[in-house]
Specification:
The complex is a heterodimer of chains A (358) and B (101). Chain A is mainly β and 358 residues long. Helix content of chain A is 1%, strand content 42%.
Chain lengths: 358, 101
Amino acid sequence: MTGRMMAATRKGLFILERQGEGWQIARSAFLGDPVSLAMADPRDGRLYAALKLGHFGVKLHASEDEGTTWHEVACPAFPLAEGENGPSVLEIWALEPGKQPGELWAGTIGGGLFHSMDGAKSWQLVDGLWNHPLRSNWLGGGNEAPGIHSICVDPEDPQHLTLAVSCGGVWQSRDGGASWRPTSEGIYAEFMPPERRNDPSIQDVHRLVQCPARPSALWAQHHNGVFHSTDAGESWQEVTAIKPSKFGFGVAVHPADPERAWFVPAVKDECRIPVDGAVVVARTTDGGRSFEIQREGLPQRHAYDLVLRHGLAIDRTGQWLAIGSTCGHLWLSGDQGSRWQMAAGHLPPIYALSFAGS
Amino acid sequence: MPLRIVDPGGPIYDGLMVRVSFTPNLRRHLPCPSLDASGGTVGEVLAQVFAQQPRLKSYVLDDQARLRRHVTLYLNSHKADLAAPVVSGDEVYVMQALSGG
């Protein structure tokens, strides 16, 4: 039974616990400080919180007691470069457990992928991706530098990694991160000059998820549409049935049903608010051929909540979904999105949600 | 001009001591009492501080050992950079720049 979730916000981390059919904030941490991401490691229950301190940089903290106490652990950092213009990690934008005990992967704004084999006691920059000649094509996409926001570790083959980069497309490694290639065929960027429209290394994928039960099934919310792959990202098909709009950030896929996915559309890139001021979730149950709009329990008039790329989460059972908005609203659904309840209405702007335990 | 602090310790100047203090905002995140260190410049003094307090380094410097963009240094009553020379009895203040909301 799902019982806990974390909301990472601009002004702290909030841990909610389920009480019957409702959810309550049980405790908080880092109040006043920006928390860009939180992750519950399903292997040992350890919690991680990534901070983005305005003055003092990016930090990573861990908790072994369900978020009651926290301690700082090593943070991914670029090695010292020649000259004075070397990179720095600007934000931890993805954090995923690997297969081996203590193995973690971290994606950053700054464009570095980092690997830890000791539970965040130390991190190594993944050189095979950092030194790839096509990485220089990556663009900032609304941030100062490109960022890796999605890391999918194939549950059937942990040497197979699939990443998404804003703006750098989808990248894959089949050898545990040693070598990489872009796999964005079929994805296009309507905002780029025509000759670069199909360039795999500049695509602005906003979020990428992989179905745990069928790792060859991937869903991507891209800057100008929704894309779906059924061949492990080797090719992509645009999902044109998405409604009420094709722009958005988040996507969630059911853990056992690769054809079942959720999106939270917004008007368009230059107008990032819900269509007609109504917060809705779009769900497909047939692989993207059709969508139903879920709105019960969500505000339908004068609502201007934007759900960012990590603001849509699904639990390991596939029953519970959560969305958190830039307006500090947090809604949960225990029936795959048919009905929603507001669990918190006055949080700071929500960056990321993560279910803990199941 | 040393824009980065890449020396893990920095030279020790016998008898030359500079007081280094930290903004209360930093004390929210980790213990950082005022302490004394030596060096010929602000950067060398801070290198000594980080040798004594390794965890402090990433709060003041970025990955490339540059002063963080939103951290400001004062030498006595004047804004200073890492290259500023110090003399015994000086005080270095590590401040946060006022930014954000």
